[in-house]
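Any chance you could type out some protein's one-letter sequence along with its backbone structure tokens so I can compare the two?
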Amino acid sequence: MSLLVEWEPVADGTECLSAIGRNDLSLLAAVGQYGDIAEVARRAGARHGTVDRRLDRLDRAVGAPLTLRGPHTARLTSAGSRLLVAGRRFFRRIDLAARTQLLGHRSEAVDAPEVLSLATTAPLPEDVVEDAAATLCLLLAVRHEEPNQVTAHLTDYLVDAAYTWTTGDAPSHSPERPTRTHEVLDDPLWVILPRDHPLAARTRISLADLRDETWVSESGPASEILVARAFQAAGLPAPARLQVADASVVRGILSRGDAIGLGSPAHPAAHAPSLVRRSLVERPRRTASLLADPTVVPPALAARLAALIARGHLRRFAADHGDLLDEPWWTRWHAEQTRRHADPAGAGPDPDAPAMPAEGRKLDVEDLHLLRAVARHGSINRAAAVLSISQSALTRRIHRLEHALGARLLLRSPRGTSLTGPTRRFLSLLDGYEADFRQAAAACRSAGRAQPSGPWPTGHAAAAAVRLSREAG
């Protein structure tokens, strides 16, 4: 299927179009994900030179550079990133309209990806990947990254979704692409102490009593410091002795007993016999969230994945940190979160869960052009003449399309042929989708004018050019 970039008048008064297809969008997505021309070519089943020519054609079709390329590397420009988003949105809307208008089906199961690439700040509970495959028909490709890298990977189209966290008043960490946030867990924090610490015998400890201690903390996706945010939320100044490190270093320092830190049900920082967990009087918390691109991951599917991750964390919390459940506050929290994320479908597959895309052919621009010609000219005969094909050839093509889609597109009677009501409604929606995409393509061209001119940069120069293009966009 081809995507409409711009309309151009032709001699017979109809319109022809420059087109970008689904395969072209897949090529741009591969550039964004891998950055290596040889790998992009391997994924596309093409040669290096063929990939270069296809990318050049896309640049000409849009009127702006969509990639920055060196001899062996390629990166999406701001214009390329925007076009990829706009193209995915267009195709999703077309598929949704075809499913709901032409086929009369429900909308939830449209365009669920077979494999979802997910960046996460912490290892997922062990059973999440298996549960996602069994109950959501979704395969998870998981990448473990530091919090400040997770959002960057989502912005750079290296992943389709990110599992990360924010603290109460932390700055928003929205990527430069469309995303929808699904809350996974209201994630209260506890303090992690060496077992021989003077305050370890207490059941609950106040942050005020710990301000003079040596702390270690990780930083969040918006560069906020978790421990400092917890003290700030409690109305206290941050500890004077506070070391900030990567999550793995934080775990190592805590395990050695060189400092104290924070853990939570969703992100337990360390778990060792030499350490104890204690509740905090101030009840500081953060929010664990799933950020997903709705043009790639249907919101209904993302919401179910968020709930599935939450249930995994809650099971692990009860198994590994059950001693905290002796305290009524933690018992109430666990019960509330469990009710909130209860799975109404039980352990088996949910019949209402978003499914894989419906089998069968998806509409392409030639199909749309045929249907529009019939709609515009009112009959197969007149449409065939405009399209410069025979009436029988046009009839066969539409018949094959009906068979492939499993939908009736035309009404045939002794008085002639006309479009069905659902087909007319579908074409009416298509007009709006194309208008939106033309507007997005114009924005891509505007973004492209901000790209550096001259030969394609390579190496560090290419990376710098990409950063400049994103800032300009």
Remarks:
- The CA atoms of residues 2 and 21 lie 4 Å apart.
- Residues 6-18, 345-359, 453-473 have pLDDT under 50 and may be disordered.
- The first strand starts at residue 2 and ends at 9.
